[in-house]
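Two folds, back to back.
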Amino acid sequence: MKPQIFVPALSDAQRQSLHQGLRSADAFTVRRCQILLASAQGHAPAVIARQLGCTARTVRNAIHTFRHEGLDCLHAKSSRPHSARPFLDETYTTALQDLLHPSPRTLDKPTSLWTLDLVAEVCYSRGWTPRPLTGEAIRVALKRLGIRWRRAKHWITSPDPAYTRKKKPVTV
């Protein structure tokens, strides 16, 4: 069984801030205030969890965070991992620009137009990324690196030198 954990004695200013937090528009802040005020009244984490419809681990996390951060724990932090770094960083900017300029056919691809998924496939095959990325991840990386991405337009071209003369005029 886990040992009982409670918040330390609250000062009047802390108690007032917690009561104000109960009227917050942010659900995270309201929940934290409910947990901390109930713990200050001497309720055990399991009892608080049952009353609020959450887990006892959530209650213990809130109490531990309050002990370390004080009232700063009432605001949700970023859920992004601290170790997260982009797969394609600034070292690949010129390489990506050089990749996107020529046609994909120069790399023996079956199309003349670059797609984001095709760029992701080539980046993985060249060892620039540790795993295959999605087209959306490539779009975000290109935007972050300042590389403008516009999909090529489709239009009809012909190797015939007299193509434009033979082409029917558009009637309105």
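---
second:
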Amino acid sequence: MTAAEASLKLVEELPDRLVESVIQQLRRGLSPLVPNPGYQMRIKDFLQMKEIPQQELAAMLEVAYVAKRSRPTAELVWTGPATPVVPVRQTEQVIFDLIQCAETRITVMSFGIFHVPRLIEGLEAALSRAVDVRIVLGERESQTDWIVEQQTDQLGRNVATNATVYRWPADRRLRDTEGKSGLMHVKTIVADSQVAFLTSANLTEAAFELNMELGVLIRGGHLPGTIDRLLDSLLESGTLTPL
């Protein structure tokens, strides 16, 4: 096994926080120490495998760590009755965490936004950090004006004024042979084109507290950025329009 291969193997076996600690200690010229004896033995084996200066080992571990972190990952987010198959994870918390971690842009698409004050507070905090907040609302054609007004009221004055809010206008919607229109039924949150949450849940109190909801949290890879580019395309074509 080469030193590069050993570096990749070590970063796969150790928790991220320990990898970061080992890299920092090696950069300072220290013999890395971690609290877990099993992990400590693995680090010792790694250091003794090759006659390589610590600074070079630190650099190799850092490259391997960056490679690991850049790989796309996907995990299920289940909100509902407890099950041994998938652990319960609150949809609201996942969304709130995404909003909190956003540095440049947060994209929100939801058919409904009602009674979610914690998320509105998160969006207000994001706006205060100069994050670009884009929100796409959905509504049924028969209730368009009332639903849009209700949802913008739910966003609050700060978010409704300083975020950019969009809709799918009735005159631009797809229709069936009987004239029935389609809905903006997407439920997704994207942070910085790096992390995307695709979910069955609308941003509502019932979705967060009562319903069965299932989603997929995607980190890294091209999919989060593709969702943002999809929205960009819909805006450029005029399919979605600002309120």
